[in-house]
Amino acid sequence: MENLDFGAFAAIGAGLAAIGGGIGIGKIGGAAMEAMARQPEMQGKLQGSAIVLIAFIEAIALFAVVVSFLGL
Questions:
Q1: Using alpha carbons only, how large is the chain's radius of gyration in Å?
Q2: CB neighbours (10 Å) of residue 3?
Q3: Half-sphere CA count of 27, side-chain side, radius 13 A
Q4: Of 16, 21, 38, 47, which one has the greatest count of Cβ atoms within 10 A?
Q5: In the chain, how many domains are there?
Q6: CATH of the domain at 51
């Protein structure tokens, strides 16, 4: 049996994690901007919540990248 190189799979996994994180952050940012446009007085509360959610998504994306590279 041949030795398989899983480096390509790790790179694809890391790329998908980065793309997924970008999509999630974009959705949160868009929804927060729309909510702030509808109710400007809630801007501070919405902005704080959006920053916390973005941090969670970044942590999950970073965890996925690390796991994909540990699979090597």
A1: 17
A2: 4
A3: 8
A4: 21
A5: 1
A6: 1.20.20.10
Please, is 19 exposed, middle or buried when counting C-beta atoms within 10 Å of its C-beta (0-12, 13-18, 19+)? Answer: exposed
Residue located via tokens 């970008």: 22
CB atoms within 10 A of CB 7: 11
Q: What integer pLDDT is reported at residue 2 of this predicted model?
A: 65
- Domain that includes residue 12, residue range: 7-70
Please report the beta strands in 1-72, taking only residues with DSSP state E, as ranges in sequence order: none
pLDDT digits (tens, 9 = 90+) for 48-71: 999 999 999 999 999 988 888 887
Residue written as token pair 């446009």: 37
**CA 6 to the chain's CA centroid:** 23
